[in-house]
Fold this sequence. Notes:
8-stranded parallel beta barrel; 5-stranded antiparallel sheet; disordered N terminus; binds ligand G3I
Amino acid sequence: MASLLAAAGVSALAGTAEAASTLGAAAAEKGRYFGTAVAANHLGESPYVSTLDTEFNSVTPENEMKWDALESTRNSFNFGAADQIVNHARSRGMAVRGHTLVWHSQLPGWVGGLGAADLRSAMNNHINQVMGHYKGKIHSWDVVNEAFQDGSSGARRSSPFQDKLGNGFIEEAFRTARAADPAAKLCYNDYNTDGVNAKSTAVYNMVKDFKARGVPIDCVGFQSHFNSASPVPGDFRANLQRFADLGVDVQITELDIEGSGTSQATSYTNAVNACLAVSRCTGITVWGVTDKYSWRASGTPLLFDGNYNKKPAYNAVLTALGGSGSGGGGGSAACTVSYSRTDEWSDRFNGKVTVTAGSSAISTWTTTVTVTSPQKISSTWNGSPTWDSSGNVMTMKPNGNGSLAAGASTSFGFTVMKNGNASAPTVGSCTAS
Length: 433
Ligand code: G3I
C-alpha cells in the first residue's frame, strides 16, 4: 500500500491523532488518497484554498485538462490553467489525477470535422502532447471517458471517435497513452457504472478483453454521481470487487451525493465503505470542495457548505475513514448554515438562513449575518438578534428553536432595506453546543 501511495505522490503520514483529523490524512492511514475536483479560477479565494490544502491530498482539474481547454485550435496547446492546478498541488505534496484525454464532450468543433485518418492522428497527437507535458506528474489518467451508452444496450456511445474509428479507438488510445507516460496509471472512467448493471457489465467485458489481450489498462474510475433517482447502489462494493478481480485498480473519481443532513451523511458512509472494503480501491475523489461551486449546486452534494462549514456528510466520511471526528470526540455538537433570498421588492428583500445540526443533536446555535452599508436589517423573525456597534453585523441566536435533533433544521428570517444596494448578506459560520 505504501508503494501505491508513493506512486500517487501521497506522502506517507505518521499515525498520529492529529494526522487523522483530515480527510487526506485519514485516507492515507488506510493506504488511500482522498481528493477533490479543483477549478483554477477559485485558487484566489482563501477559504477555498485553505480547505483544499488542509483536507485533501489529491486533486483532479474539473475542466482544465479537457480537450477544449488544452487544444481548442489544432496542435496549439494552452496549458496555463491546468498548470496552475498541477503546480499548486505538487508544491503541497498532493497527487494529481488527469481528466480526461479522449471524451465526446467538451471537444472542440474542429475534431468532429476530421476524416478518420486525420482524427486518428489528432487523437494520438493530443494524448502524446498532453501526457508528455505532464509526464511524471500525474498518478492516474482518465484516458477514455464515458464511451458507453446508458441503458440496457451495452453499446458504445456515438462520438466522432466511435463513429469514425470504431470500437478500436479505445484500445488505440490506451496503447498510445502507455507509451507517452509509462509511469502513469491508465484508467477508463464512466458514470452509471457504480452498481452491477448492463452498462457496467459492458465496461467489465471490455476490461476483461483488454486484460486477456494485453491491452494496457490499470484502473477503472467510477464517477459516482448520486441523487434520489440514482442512489448509492447496494451492490457498489460487489461491483468494485468484480472489476478488481480482473486485475485492475478501482477508484471513485467524481463522488457527489445530492441531499442534506443525516440521510446524505449515511449515503456518503456507504460509498466510502464500499471503497474501503475493496483492497484495490486506491482512492476517492469528490467532485468539488464546496456546495456553492458544484456543477449541481442546488443539490448541495458535497462535504462543505457554501461557507466552507463541515457538513454532517464530512463528519460521516472522516469517521468512515477511521479519522478522529469533528471536535475530537465527546462534544461533537456542530451546525451548518445556508442562505436564500425568499422575497424581493424594489426597496428591500427578505433573507432566510437555514441552520442544520451536524451528526449529533444540539441544544443551541449561533451565527452571524453581515450586511453592506448603507443596507440595514429592519426586522427579524424566529431568532433573537444582537448587533455590533456599526449595526451591520447581526449575531443571531435561537428564539425557542435552539434544540435540534442530529441532521434536523430550523430557520430564521430578516428584511434588508437595500438603500440602493441589493447585494446578498454574508452569513458567518455556525457554532453549536
Ligand atoms: O468558463 C465558462 C464561462 O466563461 C462561461 O461564461 C460560462 C457560461 O456557460 O461557461 C463556463 O464554462 C462552463 C464550465 O463548466 C466551467 O464552469 C461550461 O459552460 C460548463 O459546461 C462546464 O460544465 C462542466 C461539465 O463537466 C461539462 O460537461 C462542469 O463544470 C464539470 O463539473 C463537469 O464534469 C463532468 C466530468 O468532467 C465528467 N463526468 C461528469 C461530470 C459532471 O457533469
